[in-house]
Design goal:
3 domains; Rossmann fold; disordered N terminus; Cobalt-precorrin-4 Transmethylase, domain 1; alpha/beta; 11 helices
Length: about 325
């Protein structure tokens, strides 16, 4: 490990801090649902899938009494269960009701909006194309809103070019909420070119927080020797920020879980460093990274803000104060 330099002999580093960054309204709501369920009903409270994709958040909630499982079968009938922010297939609440379980749905309202859109398109007789990543919980939940065969997953531009519909005149489009804005626009452009009558989302499905965080990264990445994004490997929106940073001109970019995973050898040779955090990364992780950098270097910290966010989502009625 690199030794710490004397205070008057430290290298200078410029740190460009992206804003907005970190928690979005949907993540904040989901975490509060677990916390308040624990307060109201006591431990343990079961959570189907990680409430949000961040290991620090999950570990803290586990210490409070939350038990994370992958399937409803792992939950007892007599304890509350919370569904994660990513959403679940319709079969999950149906199974919970059949067992007379007490469940709380922490699905992000913007994910729920996509579910409602998909159902409306289906009722109108349209086949739905879902732009997203195979295996992601949000994609599994969205596809599980409809019967098998009602939706086709489009992962990239190659899928968009090769997809052959049964009825090209009766198609609709929805997207995962945490995708790269630019990549998704490229896929949509191909699909619109091939299928001019395809029904598009009434309002963009990619959530405001994903869009804003990517815009902030684009604003500062070009001048960065290194761009670091705080987030977990399972976080789609965090990994997209790393990709956006590279495409926007950063010399290199990487995902870090927090101060404990900083690559000091790489940081040492960089003069200008960009920093952001995915929508499921708490602000204390950002504070920790900044503190770690300041403990070794003379840091010129500049926050670059592209917009302000004031979105708030209500908690379920039974958990409101």
């Amino acid at each position: 490990m690199q030794s710490q330099s004397p205070a008057n002999d430290r290298l200078e580093k410029t740190l460009l801090l992206a804003a907005p960054r970190g928690f979005c309204a949907g993540v904040d709501r989901a975490i509060q649902i677990v916390e308040r369920t624990l307060e109201k009903y006591g431990a343990p409270v079961y959570v189907r899938h990680e409430i949000v994709h961040n290991t620090h958040v999950v570990s803290r909630l586990e210490n409070m009494g939350a038990i994370f499982v992958e399937e409803l079968d792992e939950c007892p009938d007599n304890r509350p269960v919370v569904f994660s922010a990513h959403g679940v297939p319709k079969s999950v609440p149906k199974a919970a009701e059949a067992r007379d379980m007490h469940y709380l749905d922490a699905t992000c309202p913007l994910v729920s909006k996509v579910h409602v859109e998909a159902e409306k398109h289906r009722k109108a007789g349209l086949h739905i194309l879902l732009i997203g990543h195979a295996g992601h919980p949000e994609v599994i939940g969205t596809m599980g809103q409809l019967e098998d065969g009602a939706m086709t997953l489009i992962e990239d531009e190659e899928d968009a070019r090769n997809y052959t519909p049964i009825d090209p005149e009766n198609l609709a489009l929805v997207t995962q909420t945490t995708l790269s804005v630019d990549d998704t626009q490229g896929i949509i452009k191909i699909l619109q070119g091939r299928f001019p009558t395809i029904a598009l989302p009434y309002k963009e499905d990619i959530c405001y927080a994903t869009t804003n965080r990517q815009a902030a990264v684009k604003e500062i990445a070009k001048g960065c020797d290194l761009f670091m994004v705080i987030g977990s490997q399972t976080s789609s929106n965090s990994k997209r920020l790393v990709e956006v940073a590279v495409k926007a001109g950063a010399n290199s970019a990487m995902l870090v879980s927090g101060a404990e995973s900083l690559d000091w050898g790489l940081i040492e040779v960089c003069e200008t460093i960009g920093l952001s955090a995915g929508a499921s990364a708490p602000e204390y992780l950002t504070d920790g990274v900044i503190a770690a950098l300041k403990s070794r270097y003379k840091v010129d910290l500049k926050e670059v803000r592209v917009t302000d966010e004031n979105v708030k989502f209500h908690l379920p009625r039974e958990l409101r104060a």
